[in-house]
Amino acid sequence: MTTPPQPDPTPVALELERLHRSVEVGFARLDGQLALLVQRSDQTDGRIVDLDTRVAELERARWPLPSLAALVALAALLLSIWQTTR
After folding, report:
1. Which of 57, 59, 55 is nearest to 47 (CA)?
2. What is the pLDDT of residues 3-58, one digit of tens each?
């Protein structure tokens, strides 16, 4: 009985190594892209916090305007009443 000849494993091993290298390169690219996205997300989060702070400051600075308008209207009313009674 003769055993059939075994195929040469060298081309299969070389092809597997090439596929392994391609997968590693692909994962490295994806890792770099994900790192860039995380960095941009962190920058965006920082900008959002900065904008929230600025909006809160503007809202705090704006509150006296309606009160000031009411005081001016009251002063105008009192002045017009005083002028009509004079």
Report:
1. 55
2. 777 778 788 899 999 999 999 999 999 999 999 999 999 999 999 999 999 999 98
Structural tokens at position 86? 């004079």
Separation CA 10–CA 29 (nearest Å): 29
Displacement of CA 11 from its chain's centroid (Å): 48
Residue 70 to residue 72: CA distance in whole angstroms: 5
DSSP per-residue letters across 53-74: HHHHHHHHHHTHHHHHHHHHHH
Whole-structure pTM value: 0.54
3-state secondary structure of 48: helix
